């Protein structure tokens, strides 16, 4: 098994680790689940950073991740006054679609970390890093397989990504602050946040409608011109995720 195959295997395992852990914590009612969940999610982030490092990225490969992370972070801070109205999810999706799953994951994770420098770090930060990273990773896979050629599919995926991001963050609240976790607490938590979840999903669709086409064309042109990240895959050359 080569380095590339090993990296992909580790990344898939990392994606599965937090959901499995959460299921075990829910069944066993582990008393230190809040602290343990942060440790597990931080461990789940490592294979993606290690996998990117194993690709031996050039400075030009780092630029789009850094730039898109900064834009996503500033966009989140700019709209912070409007609850859950943010362009971050859309920008992370666009990055993954254009530069591949690994770049999408790193952009999502770094966007959460950087934007919380303005909005406040806390135990929710690793959860946000994982959730936005996962959105970028899956968007990269969808982009490689041309699943988003139809705008309706892209917008539906964007809406779903925004809603599921918030649903995943609700788990951090339940595990960290509710004892014991009951079905009543779960229903109340998700019902109370439903309006905010719909705003996030709708704003993601709005920003995808505004940004994906013009940004996508420019990013694709730059990627192919300078051979950035997933450009090798589109030219038929062997490349890892």
UniProtKB/TrEMBL annotation:
The keyword Transmembrane helix applies. Keywords: Membrane, Transmembrane, Transmembrane helix. The chain crosses the membrane at residues 32-50, 102-119, 153-175, 187-211. GO terms for molecular function: transmembrane transporter activity. InterPro entries: ECF_trnsprt_substrate-spec. It comes from the Bacteria. This is ECF transporter S component.
